[in-house]
């Protein structure tokens, strides 16, 4: 697998996991609900 494909897969998985966090967990990592939604809604090819 190329580095680009690995990066895209990582982003897909990370963004899905981000959406599973509740508000308390998001605050623990320094994100608001809106910031998490904004990040998770990005296409996988966009950093």
From TrEMBL:
A Pfam family hit: YjiS-like
Top-rank taxon: Bacteria
Protein name: YjiS-like domain-containing protein
Residues annotated as domain YjiS-like: 4-32
